[in-house]
Amino acid sequence: MKVTMITGDGIGKEISQSAMDVIDASGADIVWDIVHAGEDVYEETGTLIPDGVFKTQVSHIKK
User: Fold this and answer.
1) What are residue 11's phi and psi, to 5 degrees?
2) What is the DSSP letter of 9?
3) What's this model's pTM, rounded to 2 decimal places?
4) SS3 letters for 14-25?
């Protein structure tokens, strides 16, 4: 199963990585699609949530 992990503000990048590590350790068959959003991305690109984040979400739904 392909799952999108959106790193960024909120719970934080460190927690996102820890959550993925725990899920991976459980043996779940997941392929992570990691995308970035939030304040750091805004400072670099001028947008909080880049179009690529939405595109990745939609591509998972269509399958």
Assistant:
1) -75, -20
2) S
3) 0.69
4) HHHHHHHHHHHH
